[in-house]
Amino acid sequence: MRRLIRGILFIIVLSAVFGAAVHFPLLRRFAAGEFREGFIERREYAGIRFITLAETEDLFAQRTQGAEGLLFIDSRGRGDFAAGHIPGALNVPLDRLQRSRKTGPGSEGTGTFDFPGAHTLVIYCEGGDCQTSISLAKIIHDRGYKDIRIFTGGWAEWSAAGLPEERSP
Amino acid sequence: MIRNRWLLLLFGVIVGGVFIWAGALKIADPLGFAQSIKNYQVVPPGLAFIIAIVLPWVEVLSGAFLIIGVFKRSSALLISLLLLGFIGLVALALARGIDTSCGCFGSLSRRADLSLILTDAVLLVFALSVFFARTPRQNH
């Protein structure tokens, strides 16, 4: 039994040493405060930034004052979106899109990832641990959009702050 | 208990091979794997990052040791424990209605669903067969 446990500990310690050696640059960046909000490779996704509620409010105010090229995207499901969303946001439900891409193009949802006239995209999901905003941001970034802001507080933070809401029928 | 030496060897090669392959794909994309762990919503992001750095090497080393016969029983037990953990994690995700990719094979991962639990269960049977096998010459 002791040999069994010793063997397991040896494998785990050796793994930690190899992992730390191979990914040492990543560990340094993590220690410096990177990857706290999402595991996005900055060099690969240079156009994606995480923003706070205050920054989102600021962008929302700019949009309501007529700023062009600014689009809010809600990556939650249709039901959640219909129940309440940031006014003027476009619903791009990631789960449906992923399924529709498997069954063929154009079968369901906004499958083109084309947002005419938009150059700054603000993406949000439910907030908390939701990840669809990050996943969607990566896909859209790969399609050529290079100014993408992820509002990590998401819908939960927006509605809790008592900010304007819109419902769909 | 399975006593056939060749069958046990085959089980070890299958489980070890799958673990080496799965671990290598994750080593190639540690951030992607960290994101997959985070998606399960079980551990905080910092711990997800540490797991993403260490766990793939545990898979590769235990898989390799299982095949070459060094620390064979320790590796088989470790792999069995990992598989039990994976099964529990996927079952928990299903029970909580979390729709996520399993993260098991890096970018080649599939959805965390019931068929994944069955696959892991088969691998668990193979790993436990190797662990409980009593052969004349035993390493650890």
- The overall pLDDT average of chain B reads 85
Shape estimate of chain A: elongated
Strand content of chain B: under 5%
The H-level CATH homologous superfamily of the largest domain in chain A, spelled out, is: Rhodanese-like domain
Q: Which percent range describes the beta-strand content of chain A?
A: 5-15%
State the distance separating the first and last CA atoms of chain A: 64 Å
The biggest beta sheet of chain A reads:
5 strands, parallel
The CATH class of the largest domain in chain A is identified as Alpha Beta
Instruction: Compute the number of strand runs of chain B.
Output: 0
Order of SSEs of chain B, N→C? Answer: HHHHH
Q: Report the C-alpha radius of gyration of chain A, rounded.
A: 20 Å
CATH topology of the largest domain in chain A: Oxidized Rhodanese, domain 1
- Main interface pair? A-B, 31 and 33 residues
Terminal CA distance of chain B: 18 Å
Counted beta strands of chain A: 5
